[in-house]
Design goal:
The protein has six helices and eleven strands. By secondary structure, the chain is of the alpha+beta class. A hairpin with a 2-residue loop joins strand 2 and strand 3.
């Protein structure tokens, strides 16, 4: 993948998957989810804990956004560094973002030791990602557009033509919409919008 393509696209997932890994009696269930934000994460973790109340551990890792700084890992009571980090490592090895993996462990009576735990959590996460198709999505630049109702058809035609994502719309006599414009078409879109009389664009 060229660096230019890297700037314009990112890899993520759209489907939820689950995989099971066993080691010396312990069972590891790895759940992979597409993730929107931290609220979405809290809901998914709460649902898993409710579904598996008798599990000994609910370990997880997630990565959000495109700048590499928004991630979180948890060993959930396992020895430090044996669960969350190996799970995150699998997300990163596939260069994915907006992804959550929760690995639920049922203890099987035999201690696995630190190397065994690292291997088990890594393997469970890897198995789940193997069965989860990744997708390429365009990097978007977010803009607010302000325009007169008379310009709506012209604006909407551009929004549709360039596969912009609509987040919010308030269509009255004076219209306000929030859109995500694909970064690779940004200059084109802004130039065309500027050509329409009285359209204001504002990055946010």
């Amino acid at each position: 993948m060229s660096s230019e393509k890297n700037n314009y696209y990112y890899s993520t997932i759209e489907k939820t998957s689950v995989a099971e890994y066993k080691d010396r009696g312990s069972k590891f269930l790895a759940y992979v989810y597409p993730l929107k934000d931290t609220e979405d994460f809290k809901e998914k973790l709460a649902a898993i804990k409710k579904e598996h109340p008798k599990a000994t551990h609910h370990c997880f890792a997630y990565r959000l956004g495109l700048d590499g700084t928004n991630y979180r890992v948890s060993d959930a009571g396992e020895p430090s560094g044996t669960a969350g980090r190996p799970i995150l490592g699998q997300i990163d090895s596939k260069q994915l973002t907006n992804v959550l993996i929760i690995v639920v462990r049922y203890f099987g009576g035999t201690l696995l030791g630190v190397p065994g735990l690292i291997s088990a959590y890594k393997s469970a996460a890897a198995l789940a990602l193997q069965i989860t198709p990744s997708v390429q999505k365009p990097v978007l630049s977010n803009y607010r557009l302000h325009f007169n109702y008379m310009q709506m058809n012209d604006v909407m035609r551009i929004v549709k033509q360039f596969d912009c994502i609509m987040y919010k719309q308030d269509l009255q006599l004076f219209c306000h919409i929030e859109v995500g414009i694909p970064l690779m078409r940004l200059t084109e879109v802004l130039t065309m919008l500027k050509d329409i009389q009285s359209v204001e664009t504002e990055k946010y």
